[in-house]
User: Fold this.
Amino acid sequence: MDTMRAEERAFLLERLTASEAKLLALAEGMTPEQWLFREMPERWSIAENFEHLVLFERFIRGVVAKVIATPAEPEKMQAVARKQDSVLELAVVGERKIEAREVVRPVGGFVDAATMQEMLRRERAETIAFAREVQADLRQHFFPHLTLGDLDGYQWLLVIAQHSDRHAGQIKRVMLDPRYPHTRG
Assistant:
């Protein structure tokens, strides 16, 4: 039975679409030097940010698909519902660093901007299709976030969008570095 309210689904789809557009606009016409530029050795390049986003999205979508196949846990709903604002605040790029799970850390496997952008488009299209079509009660299935603890399936799909916005902010910060190669391709 579909228990996602129409306004929830519309909000989720809008956030997924808008965050993808923001990322793709930032990467438009980037040169290889811009794509691979690092503001500091310990910070990710734009290429690594994109690789991470592709890996993260695939991982989270897979986790949500798996958890909705497990028994519902309605007893967790009330506590998790209070985390909705925290989920929406994940897009804020601040000094609070969130360490990525090993499985979604970039390994330098993709360095071509056009290929990575296409991979992001494909992953996002799959996520949007999943969000549009899912009929399970996402609010009764949970998976722990590294800093927020348990989140429900709906919140996890929102995390994908908020996470993308957070990395868009990080990419903008990279582009503001005085050493960033500003010549467009």
About this structure: The first strand starts at residue 142 and ends at 145. The mean pLDDT is 90.
